[in-house]
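Internal ticket #5521
Category: modeling
Description: The requester needs a full-assembly model to guide mutagenesis choices. All entity lines are attached below as received. Residue total reported by intake: 896.
Assigned to: D.W.
Attached entities:
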Amino acid sequence: MASHGESKWVYSFGAGKTEGRADMKNLLGGKGANLAEMANLGLPVPPGFTITTEVCTYFYANGRTYPVELKDQVAAALAEIEQAMGAVFGDANNPLLVSVRSGARASMPGMMDTVLNLGLNDVTVAGLATRSGDARFAYDSYRRFIQMYGNVVLDVDHHHFEEILDSVKRDRGYSLDTDLTAADWQAVIADYKAMVERELGRPFPQDPQEQLWGAVGAVFGSWMNARAITYRKLHDIPAEWGTAVNVQSMVFGNMGNDCATGVAFTRNPSTGENAFYGEYLVNAQGEDVVAGIRTPQHLTIAGREANKSDLPSMEEVMPEVFNQLNEVRLRLEKHYRDMQDIEFTVQQNKLYMLQTRTGKRTAQAALRIAVDMATEALVTKAEAVSRIDPASLDQLLHPTLDPKAERKVIAKGLPASPGAASGKVVFSADDAETQAALGDAVILCRIETSPEDIHGMHAAKGILTTRGGMTSHAAVVARGMGRACVAGAGELRIDYKTKVMSVRGVQVKEGDLVTIDGSTGEVMLGAVPTVQPELSGDFATLMGWADELRRMKVRANAETALDAATARKFGAEGIGLCRTEHMFFDPARILAVREMILAETEEGRRKALAKLEPFQKQDFVELFTIMAGLPVTIRLLDPPLHEFLPNTEKEMAEVAAAAGTDPLRVHQRSVQLHEANPMLGHRGCRLGITYPEIYEMQARAIFSAAADVAKSGTPVTPEVMIPIVATRKELDILKAVIDRVAAEVKAASGQEFEYSVGTMIELPRAALRAGEIAETAEFFSFGTNDLTQTTLGISRDDAGSFLPDYERAGIIEHDPFATLDQDGVGELVRIGAERGRAARPGIKLGICGEHGGDPASIQFCESVGLDYVSCSPYRVPIARLAAAQAALKTDTVKRD
Ligand code: ADP
Ligand code: MG
Ligand code: MG
C-alpha cells in the first residue's frame, strides 16, 4: 500500500481488495482494468497486480529508470499474491509462478509478448514437480519459460529453440510436443540453457527477482520498438499513452487432461450470430490455441458440427466447466453490454478468467450484434447506431463474388474474414507493400502471419494462410482491418524460397492472379467476377434508426443516370453536386464542345452550343426523373476550357474539320488558352462572365428539362449553382441571365416550376463576404476541395510531393483533402455559414467535395449546422450513419 504522500504506481486485483475498475483504462491499460473489473464482479481471476501506465511515462521521461517507490510497492503487491495463493515467489519447495503481461489502453500488436511461468529456475522447478506430483508438467512449464523469456526478454531468435526441440523430437521419433516425457523435457532444458549462454555470453537468469524486473523492463521497452511505433502511427495512438504491466499468478492449463486453455467470443465475430463461439485445447498453455501447433477444438457442439470437426467440443468433454464458462459469458455481456473477446484457462476442472475485452468483429457482425442487442434491450437504438464505425460499412457496400461466375477452386480454408478479393499473389509483407504502392491489388499468402506482417496485411486486398484457426493472428487482424481472409488452407504448400504455392499439381507463382472468398474459405485461380451487395436486413434496420436520429440530409454527387440510381438505392435525398462538365466529355458531344471553344464569334459559339443543348437537356430529364422531386443541384461549367481541347495531331485535325477551320488554328487556340495556374485561372463563373451564352445554354437545358418532367407529372426541384464566385457582382450578373432564361422557358412551355439559384463557397473571399453574397444567393454549397486549395495555397495535384513530409514532421495531422482542416478551412466555413444566415435567415447550406463523405468532417458540418452533406454514391450510407452519430454527439438529434 502506498503510504501518505507517495504516488501510487501499483494496483492489486483478485487478492483481497481489488483497486482498479473498468473505467481506469488510461491508468491500468485495457487488460489490467478489465482484470480488475472481472475480479470486482466476483469472477474467478487469478490474483495479480498492475504497474500503471504512469510508470511507463516516468520511465521514458527519466532515462529509463523507475520511480523510487516502485520496488516497495511491487514487493508489497507480490506478498499479497503469495498470501492469496499460499505459495512464495522463488521458494524452493512451494514456488509462486507469475505471468508478466503488457497491456496498453487499446490492445496493441507490437507490444511485448506475454511471459508465462516466470519464477522457475533449476531449483524451483524441482519444487513444482514435487508439489504438483507431475514432473512432466513442471519441466514442460520450465522449458516454455526459458523459450518465452529467452525470446521475448533476452531477444534470442526463436528458431534456435525450435531447432533444439525439433532435433530432440527427431532423435526420439516423436511427432507431437505432448509425446515428450519429463526426462525429455529436462534434456531440452539443458540444451536451451546451453544455447542461451552461447548466444548471450552469460547464463540464463536464475534469480526470480532478476527475471521479474527483466520482464517488466522489456514490456516498457517494447513500447518504443519499431512494430509498436508503426502500429500506433497506423491507428492514431499517441506515444504519451504508455503501456501498463500486469503481473499475475499463474494457473495451469497444462497439468493434465482435466486442464485446458481457450479463447472465445461471446457472439460469433464473423456473422454476429448470438452464439458462443470459441476454441480450446486440452492440456495446453497460453498461446498454444492460436499458435497453430495443434489444431484447436471447438467450444460448443454447434460450432463443432457447423465446422464438420471430429474433435470433441468442450461442451462434451468438460460439460460442467463449460456451463460455468457460458454463465460467465452471459454475465460479461450483461455487464459490458457488448460482445466480449475472452481468454480462460481450466486447471484441474476449475475455471479461471484471464482476459476480457470488447471483441473485434466484421462489419457484418457489428451490424447484427448492434441490431440484436437493441432488440434484446441490452442497448438503446442510439447506442446501437453509435457503435458502428461508419467507415466499416465500406466493407458491406463492396462487391461479393458473382454466384453465377465460374470458380476454379484449388483449396479450401477457414472463412476467417468475409468479403471477396482478387489480386496478384505475394509471399511477404514487404512485397505486398511494394506491389500495392505500384497500384496492384495483392493477396498476401503466408504460412501464418505475425505482428511483423501488419503493414503488408494493410496493403493487401486479402490474406491467405495455410496454418492457424479462426482466432489465429491472421484471422483476428484481417477482421479488424476489414480485409478478406482465408486462414488455415492446409492443403496449400507455400515455399517462400522459390515463391511458389502448390496444391495437387497446381502451381501458383508470385504475381499470378488468385481470388479468395473470406465468406466460404475458398481459394480460386484467376480473378472471379463480382456482384453488388444487397442492402437489406440488419443493414436496413440500422440505417433506418440512423435516419430517425440524424438532422442533416445526405445527398450524392452524381452526373449520370447510373450514379443517380445508385445514390437513391443507398438512400441519398437528392443530388448535391452535378458537375455538368462530365457530361461534355461524352464522345458524342466533345466535338461540339471543341467547336464552341474554337469559334471566333459569339454567333459561332451559339451555333455550337445549340448542338449541345439537346444532349444536356436529355441528361437533366433523366436526373430529374430519377430524383423525382428531390433537390438536384446543378453546377454550371467549371473547369478551364483548355481541358476540353485535343492533344494529339489526329484529334486536332478531326476537330478542325468539324469546326470548318484548319489544324493550325486549333493548335493556336490551345496555346492561347494555356494557363500557368489553371486552378486559379479562367474557370467557373469567370467563363460565364466572358461567355454568358455558355451558362445561358446550360440554364435553358436545365429549365426546359424541368418543364418537360413537371409537365409529365413528376415534381422537380432544380437548384442552379454557380462556381468560383468571389464577389456578389459576379453572381448578380449571372443570376440575371439565369432568371431571364427561366422566365423565357416558362412562357414558351406554359409550364410553371420552382427553382433556386445559389453559389458555391470555395474561395476565402466568398466565405468572408458571404453576407452580401447571400443577398443574391438562395443557397450555399461549400466546395471544400477548392476551398482547401485556396485557403492553404496548396494544389491538390502537386501536394503529393510534400504532404507526406508534412505529416511526418507533425505539421499536419491528416491529409487536408481527405479530412477537413477544421481550424483553418473550417473557420471559413463557419464564418460563411454565420454571415450567410445573418443576411438570409434559413438560407440552405450544404457541403460537397470529398469531405462530405468523411465521418470526422461530417461531425464538423453538424456542429456548424449545415443542412446537408453531399458525397459520392457509395459513401451515402457512411454519411447517413456518420450524420446520425454527429447529431448524437452534438445533441442535435432530430425530435419529431
Ligand atoms: P495477449 O495480449 O497477446 O493476448 P496475454 O497477456 O493475454 O497476451 O497472454 C496470452 C495468454 O497467456 C493468455 O491468453 C493466457 O492463455 C496465457 N496467460 C497469461 N497469463 C496467464 C496466467 N496468469 N495464467 C495462465 N495463463 C496465462
Ligand atoms: Mg490475451
Ligand atoms: Mg470547385
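Resolution: model delivered.
Comment from assignee: The chain has four domains: 4-249, 260-361, 398-531, 550-640+675-890.
Ticket closed.
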